[in-house]
Write a structure and sequence with these properties.
326 residues; mainly alpha; two-stranded antiparallel ribbon; 73% helix
């Protein structure tokens, strides 16, 4: 009985050793076919039309047609043709680009493009550092993630120039993350994870100490001084993924899509989804939410696991039979 009991315990330990889970990606095509209700799709399209997000409305309509959801497509197409004219689009783009360049915020492609363009000229990052430094001086709350990403942006701009553009994708990704932060698009858990990474790369407290009494023109020099490129590996990798999402979709869609990310793992999964669905990715996430990037955990079935389970059952039966015989 002692031998059987020992064998049972040993096999249970082996089961624990081989009990592993793997991430199973969701079947997004099946979800779009079977989980999306026509009424929900109609509501989403009309909400985007009311908000004048015409590109997003077109994306949702294209998904509806692709997955055979019944809607009055001709009615919506006529509405788009009447309201989204070339002249109105051009005037809106010019105005929003200028606003994005100055404010560092943007809701559409041109506004976000203006904000990112400002970062590539260092103007945007210095503006954000100046704003947060002024808040610090007034005793107001400071957005630590904006400050660290802005400081990293200054450092990356210098590296991008010296490398003749080799680090431009990282710079673009960092700007996208900062813009999403400024627009309050990031979840609390993802902000916390990013802050841990960026805090090792840009020392905000040292920046504050060195900036006392200096002019705004000295901010870029001080920011580069407290920027630590040797600690930038993790944030650079995430910035590349954020830039990949931007390239697969659009510059404004990438900012909106980041709201579905709760961790760096989610960012990686979102990157893979955008590779598959491209410009339709925002519509996919609009309809399916975070389930499009979460998936499920599935038990990894291996030969070792099966042998361990069978062996534990075998020794358990021997123990019970022997116990009953006594």
């Amino acid at each position: 009985m002692l031998i059987y009991l020992t064998g049972f315990i040993y096999c249970l330990l082996k089961v624990a050793d081989h009990w592993e889970y793997e991430f199973k990606a969701p079947d997004i095509d099946a979800m779009l076919t079977h989980r999306v209700e026509p009424e929900a799709l109609k509501h989403a399209v009309e909400a985007e039309l009311r908000a004048k997000n015409y590109d997003q409305a077109r994306s949702l309509l294209a998904l509806g047609q692709q997955y055979n959801h019944p809607l009055e497509y001709s009615v919506y197409e006529a509405y788009l043709a009447a309201h989204d004219t070339p002249f109105s689009r051009l005037s809106k783009q010019v105005s929003n680009f200028a606003n994005g360049f100055v404010s560092g915020k943007g809701e559409d492609v041109s506004g976000v493009a203006g904000a990112v363009a400002a970062d590539f000229t260092v103007v945007g990052d210095v503006r954000d550092l100046s704003e947060q430094y002024a808040r610090h001086q007034q005793g107001l709350p400071v957005n630590q993630l904006v400050t660290t990403l802005a400081g990293i942006g200054v450092g990356l701009t210098a590296v991008t120039v010296s490398s003749m553009g080799a680090t431009a994708p990282v710079k673009a990704g960092a700007s996208t993350l900062k813009l999403a932060t400024r627009m309050n698009r990031l979840s609390r858990s993802f902000r916390k994870e990013l802050l841990q990474m960026t805090g090792r790369v840009f020392d905000w407290q040292q920046f504050v100490r060195l900036s006392k009494g200096v002019s705004l023109s000295q901010f870029p020099r001080i920011a580069k001084q407290v920027y630590n490129p040797r600690a930038a590996g993790q944030i650079n990798a995430l910035a590349k993924q954020a830039n990949g999402i931007r390239k697969n979709t659009s510059i404004s869609d990438s900012v909106h899509l980041l709201q579905y990310v709760d961790s760096s793992k989610d960012l990686n999964r979102l990157h893979r989804v955008t590779k598959r669905y491209g410009v339709q990715s925002r519509g996919v996430l609009r309809l399916l939410g975070k389930s499009a990037i979460r998936g499920v955990k599935a038990l990894r079935i291996t030969l070792e696991l099966l042998i361990s389970i069978v062996s534990s059952v075998f020794f358990a039966l021997l123990f019970i039979v022997n116990l009953g015989g006594k």
